[in-house]
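Hi V.,

Quick status before I head out on leave. The structure for the redesign project is tokenized and pasted below; the design run finished overnight.
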């Protein structure tokens, strides 16, 4: 199990959580600045309005009227916790007010400032507006900021607690997220460890799940099936090669041994040598076909692909196969629609068609009709080689492209079970599609080749 620090899932989930938290933080800051700013602006407006009223009272009713008005404000039981009033005579002596200590900056007039004062004997930071009248007397109107600061502190504390809780939740959520996903990954890991330990039949238990992990697990299972099949094929191929080599080699050896007997004639020696050469040629043929398949599967010949019309290739084939068909009492018919063009390896395509025609000739029997049909649509060229012979039994249809596979009933015919393997390898080299179907009766081989 990867440590939390190295876990990509944990880091992603945590990153997402932190991003979320950051956005909440930004929203909260805007909210905080908006709320606190609004409160402060409201308080300022109120101070300015009261100061303005008192100035008007002074203009209207003189010092006595102002004194009376301030007295009324101080005793009206409104805003008792926050109101600040101070009236000083021209000599700076307090006439009325609830400030017990103050320090007013000289020259500051009609401007709102924050100042440290004592209000009713208690230290206070207050917002003050100082107005100096023409006769030298001074009016101070203000507001204790204690409550406002208290509110701001409360909001900040709430935001800090919320942020800390959010952070905790983000970390816990990321850990939970990771443990959930880790459990899903562990199922896959256990299976792949088992497979690498040699248990190639082990598969990941997917159940009915349809999520991304189930998709990956199914892909891996499919891949393991393919690997198993390939290994079976490889095993099968090497067994068959060993077997197919041993029999003819044994025969060659027997013939040569017999020819070397003291009583054998020069004719017998010649016959044995010819026999050995024929058998060895057949073996070389098998190896050549195996090499052709390997070359097609390696994909190197893709570099030789060219765009070419199929018709000349078909004409050449007809020239070659028509006489053979007539000699065997078979009918060979070619039907080409339009002028099909493919991007392919010309020799390989000719080889594939020759293999299919050989098979049709070999297995369909005399009197059979063999059709070679070619047509083209927007994206693909469709080639069909069809005969009306005995065809291939349904249970063998899926296996005839395996190397060395032959239907038992065909063993009387010469062959080595590599022709259709070459066809399949060449079609897949061209990223095409090969279909083998029952033509009822006979075999229908369809090849779809991309045109670009
Ligand atoms: P080979 O012909 O050398 O045996 P192929 O790979 O070409 O090998 O064919 C594999 C097997 O498929 C053949 O042995 C035969 O049993 C069967 N087969 C192929 N083509 C036909 C056909 N046209 N009709 C009937 N059976 C066929």
């Amino acid at each position: 199990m990867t440590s939390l620090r190295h876990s990509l899932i944990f880091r992603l989930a945590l990153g997402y959580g932190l991003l979320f938290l950051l956005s909440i933080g930004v929203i909260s800051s805007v909210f905080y600045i908006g709320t606190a700013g609004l409160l402060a602006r409201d308080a300022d407006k109120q101070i300015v309005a009261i100061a303005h009223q008192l100035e008007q009272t002074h203009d209207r009713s003189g010092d006595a009227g102002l004194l009376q008005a301030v007295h009324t404000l101080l005793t009206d039981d409104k805003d008792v916790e926050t109101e600040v009033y101070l009236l000083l005579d021209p000599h700076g002596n307090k006439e009325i007010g609830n400030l017990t200590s103050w320090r007013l900056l000289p020259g500051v007039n009609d401007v709102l400032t924050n100042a440290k004062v004592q209000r009713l004997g208690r230290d206070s930071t207050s917002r003050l507006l100082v107005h100096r009248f023409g006769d030298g007397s001074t009016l101070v109107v203000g507001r204790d900021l204690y409550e406002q600061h208290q509110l701001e502190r409360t909001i900040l504390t709430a935001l800090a607690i919320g942020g800390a809780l959010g952070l905790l939740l983000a970390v816990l959520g990321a850990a939970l997220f990771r443990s959930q996903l880790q459990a899903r990954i562990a199922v896959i890991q256990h299976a792949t460890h088992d497979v690498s330990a040699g248990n190639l039949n082990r598969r990941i238990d997917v159940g009915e799940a349809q999520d991304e992990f189930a998709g990956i697990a199914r892909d891996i299972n499919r891949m393991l099936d393919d690997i198993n099949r390939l290994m079976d094929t490889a095993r099968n191929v090497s067994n068959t090669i060993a077997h197919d080599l041993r029999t003819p080699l044994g025969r060659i050896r027997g013939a040569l041994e017999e020819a070397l007997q003291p009583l054998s004639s020069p004719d017998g020696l010649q016959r044995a040598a010819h026999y050995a050469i024929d058998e060895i040629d057949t073996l070389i043929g098998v190896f050549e076909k195996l090499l052709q398949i390997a070359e097609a599967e390696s994909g190197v010949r893709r570099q030789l692909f060219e765009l070419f019309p199929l018709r000349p290739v078909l004409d050449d084939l007809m020239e070659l196969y028509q006489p053979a068909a007539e000699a065997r009492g078979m009918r060979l018919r070619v039907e080409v629609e339009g002028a099909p063009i493919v991007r392919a390896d010309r020799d390989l395509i000719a080889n594939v068609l020759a293999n299919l025609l050989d098979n049709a000739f070999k297995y369909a029997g005399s009197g059979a009709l063999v059709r070679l049909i070619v047509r083209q649509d927007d994206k693909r060229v469709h080639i069909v080689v069809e005969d009306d012979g005995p065809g291939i039994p349904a249970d063998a249809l899926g296996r005839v492209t395996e190397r060395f596979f032959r239907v038992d009933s065909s063993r009387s015919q010469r062959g080595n079970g590599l022709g259709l393997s070459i066809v399949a390898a060449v079609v897949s080299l061209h990223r095409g599609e090969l279909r083998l179907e029952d033509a009822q009766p006979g075999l229908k081989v369809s090849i779809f080749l991309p045109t670009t």
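Above is the designed sequence. Residues 359-360, 363-364, 387, 389-392, 400, 406-407, 410, 415-421, 443 surround adenosine-5'-diphosphate (CB under 6 Å).

G. will cover questions while I'm gone.

Best,
W.
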